[in-house]
C-alpha cells in the first residue's frame, strides 16, 4: 500500500517543480538572443559598390582586395553577403542611371569613390555610405567633419582644397620661368573644384603666376584648349583629380605637339 505524501513532501515537490520550471523558462529566454543572432548570421547581407572608374585590371584588383578584406572579417560572398559592383566610368548620365538603379535595389550599405554618386544618394536615400578617395567631403557637405561625420556617410578623403596652392608651388619649382597656369577640369564630375580652384587662385600671386580657369567636357575641347595654351609662352597646366580629364589626358600625353612652351602638374592619383 502506497503511503500518501506528507504535506512537507508535497510542498517540497511543488517548490522543486517550480524551480525546474523557472530554470527551463530562463534557459529558453537566454537562448532567444542566440537564436536571433544565428538567424541573423544566415541572412544574406547586400553591399552596393559604385566604382569610380570604368572596369580595368587595376580597378578589378581594388575590388578583389575589398572582397578579401571582407572574407577575413567572416563575410563570405554568396554565403552571408552579396556584393553588387557597378562600373561607373566618367559619363555623368551613366553615373546617375547606375546610382538610381542601385538605390532602388536597397542595399544595406553603399561603398563609393565618386562625388556625383554620393551626392545623389544623400539627396534621395538614407542608405549608409562609405566613401573612399573623395576630395574634401566636408566642403561637399557629405559630412560635418572627418572626425565626427554625422548623418549616414563616413569614409576617407584623398585631397584637401589647400593642396591646390601646393600644386602651384610645385609647378613653379619645376619651371622657375612660369608666368601662367591653366587649371583644366570637367565641372560636372568635379563638384569640389570651386574650393581647389580658390586655393590655386589665392596662391598664384605669391609665386607671380596668373591663373586661368579652363572648363572642358570632352577630348575635343581639351585638344582646343591645349592648342591655344601651347601658343602662349611660359604657360603651365594643372590637371586636378577628375577622372574624365585624366582619361582624356592619357590619350593626349603621347602627342608632343603642345609641349614646347608648356609644362604640367598632375596629381599622382585620381580622386573624385
Can you put this structure into words, describing what you see?
With 272 residues, the chain is of the alpha/beta class. The protein folds into two domains: 43-159, Rossmann fold; 163-265, Response regulator (Rossmann fold), CATH 3.40.50. The chain has helices at 7-42, 57-72, 92-104, 115-124, 163-174, 193-203, 219-229, 243-252, and strands spanning 45-51, 81-87, 109-112, 129-135, 153-159, 180-185, 210-215, 235-238, 262-265. The strands form two sheets. Strands 2-1-3-4-5 form a five-stranded parallel β-sheet, covered by helices on one side. Strands 7-6-8-9 form a four-stranded parallel β-sheet, with helices on both faces. Helix 4 (115-124) links the parallel strand 3 and strand 4. Helix 3 (92-104) packs across helix 4 and helix 5 crosses helix 6 (193-203). The radius of gyration is 30 Å and the shape is elongated.
Amino acid at each position: 500500500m502506497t503511503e500518501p505524501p506528507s504535506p512537507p513532501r508535497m510542498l517540497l515537490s511543488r517548490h522543486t517543480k517550480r524551480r525546474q520550471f523557472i530554470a527551463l523558462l530562463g534557459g529558453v529566454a537566454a537562448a532567444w538572443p542566440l537564436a536571433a543572432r544565428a538567424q541573423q548570421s544566415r541572412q544574406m547581407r547586400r553591399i552596393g559598390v559604385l566604382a569610380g572608374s570604368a572596369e580595368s585590371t587595376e580597378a578589378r584588383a581594388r575590388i578583389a582586395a575589398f572582397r578579401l578584406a571582407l572574407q577575413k572579417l567572416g563575410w563570405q560572398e554568396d554565403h552571408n553577403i552579396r556584393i553588387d559592383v557597378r562600373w561607373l566610368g566618367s559619363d555623368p548620365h551613366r553615373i546617375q542611371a547606375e546610382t538610381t538603379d542601385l538605390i532602388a535595389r536597397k542595399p544595406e550599405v553603399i561603398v563609393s569613390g565618386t562625388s556625383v554618386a554620393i551626392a545623389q544618394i544623400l539627396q534621395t536615400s538614407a542608405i549608409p555610405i562609405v566613401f573612399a578617395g573623395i576630395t574634401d567631403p566636408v566642403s561637399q557637405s557629405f559630412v560635418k567633419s572627418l572626425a565626427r561625420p554625422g548623418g549616414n556617410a563616413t569614409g576617407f578623403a584623398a585631397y584637401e582644397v589647400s593642396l591646390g596652392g601646393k600644386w602651384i608651388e610645385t609647378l613653379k619649382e619645376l619651371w622657375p620661368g612660369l608666368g601662367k597656369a591653366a587649371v583644366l577640369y570637367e565641372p560636372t564630375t568635379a563638384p569640389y573644384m570651386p574650393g581647389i580652384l580658390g586655393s590655386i587662385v589665392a596662391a598664384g600671386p605669391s609665386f607671380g603666376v596668373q591663373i586661368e580657369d579652363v572648363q572642358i567636357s570632352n577630348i575635343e575641347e581639351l585638344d582646343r584648349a591645349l592648342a591655344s595654351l601651347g601658343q602662349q609662352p611660359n604657360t603651365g597646366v594643372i590637371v586636378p583629380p577628375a577622372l574624365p580629364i585624366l582619361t582624356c589626358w592619357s590619350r593626349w600625353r603621347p602627342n608632343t605637339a603642345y609641349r614646347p612652351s608648356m609644362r604640367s602638374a598632375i596629381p599622382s592619383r585620381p580622386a573624385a
